Amino acid sequence: MGKGQVNHGARFHLGETTTSHELQQTSRAMAEIPFKNLHSREYQGHKKKVHSVAWNCTGTKLASGSVDQTARIWQIESHGHGKVKDVELKGHTDSVDQLCWDPKHAELIATASGDKTVRLWDARSGKCSQQVELSGENINITYKPDGTHIAVGNRDDELTILDVRKFKPIHKRKFNYEVNEIAWNMSGDMFFLTTGNGTVEVLAYPTLQPVNTLNAHTAGCYCIAIDPLGRYFAVGSADSLVSLWSIKEMLCLRTFTKLEWPVRTISFNHTGDYIASASEDLFIDIANVQTGRSVHQIPCRAAMNSVEWNPKHNLLAYAGDDKNKYQADEGVFRIFGFESA
């Protein structure tokens, strides 16, 4: 199948027969990236556990947000040599639950915190340039792909859209169901909400009028990722499955079945060929998007909170509930994909 084509008949489940064409595809994908030869590196700095990791649009910097009320910016080289410097973003008075970079500006980053504020920072100076106080504890944040708006979700299932230039709310909507992760499609005319009812609500943007309700899973949907080529979105659920959907058809194409615990975080790699997913299982699964097959597992020591692929290289940042031998938070995150440890 070509990159843009979608096989509507395909439901890959264990025990199904595989055609030689699919096997060729799988072996080709595995030949592309020998994941088993790659290593993870650990980055220490936070005093408490890391909730969120995110790469900037050029793939040169990684941000981490922590329960220790700070975010940190790390300059990462894809070859991974040299001392890693980090800049601390200080000012929040509660956990930094999620963060996201301006998709058009490699040095601007927004953070969402339990202290009810959303803050915009300059990653070079570490200074907060804008902040706005909203009505609740903020847990989800995402940029519109053109960089003009930011969507924020809070613990009370309220969605706020911010105009980035004025840094003021332009839309507010309270939902009468549990709203989890949120996302725009690549063209910015559709907005997705994952819900505790197992549905994905598809809204038109900017009107936020409902367009579609997708009955995606038998338990709550927790996370969503958009394929960088704009063909698919993926949803992770409390039923331990990840489902892959065609954006054009709004149909489920296949499910990824390797994990056994609720899926907390998912991410497509920069080519859209692989999807990483993680949970309380003690590994991160990497699967081939086209075949649905798992191609690698990265072992981890704790439940994962956040995984994100670099937008230019096959480097996967991940952070979880790691504890030291005294059962205190380690405050570390790791990056997988280096040729040496």
TrEMBL record:
GO biological process: mRNA export from nucleus
GO cellular component, one term: THO complex part of transcription export complex
Ranges: WD repeats: 43-78, 89-131, 214-255
Stretch list, region Disordered: 1-24
Keywords tagged on the record: Repeat, WD repeat
Family, per entry: Belongs to the THOC3 family.
Protein name in UniProt: THO complex subunit 3
Species annotation: Anisodus tanguticus
